[in-house]
Amino acid sequence: MFAQDTAIVQDALVAPAASIAQDARQGMVPMGWEGKLRFHAKSAYSPAALARAAVSSAYLLGIDSPPEWGQDAQGYGQRLGSTLAHSGVRNLIGFSLDSALHQDPRYYRSTDRGVWRRAIHAFRGTILTHKDSGGETLSTWRLGSAYGAAFISNEWRPDRGNTLAQGFSKGSTQLGIDLLANVGREFWPDVKGKLLRRKP
Q: What is the gyration radius of the CA atoms in the chain, in angstroms?
């Protein structure tokens, strides 16, 4: 069993050429800068993004983070404003990088079968990204925007949290959230389809 799992990991990480080619055939059309601008605007301020920001800010209020902002209505407003500003900065950096470097910010679901392979594909889709010209490269737009926004947003947070370690921690946490989001993009359509089929 271990040998089989190891082979699956090696196939997905080391020799993914056939899967990549198949992904490219499933409707990957190069995205111009206008499309990338719409993508990042939606990521930052769509109704779903605003709802996530509201929930996230309520969570931060509940755990009193950062405590300097208090746990009243004003404290919630500060956290919501900070969350929305962080999202805007992150997507602005992401748009600048993927446009300049000709990278595609979209996630493409795997055409493979099996939870292992598809989970690894979601991980790859977090670290790597498609190029506008085809093929894959390091996801500079994602890494740069995650850490860049983390350090920039620290500038308006209390001094206690404005440290190098906190910047790296926030950037890494954002990449973890991106990974979970890609896992959701990979598997949720299947789960939703099964749930809908079960309805009478």
A: 19
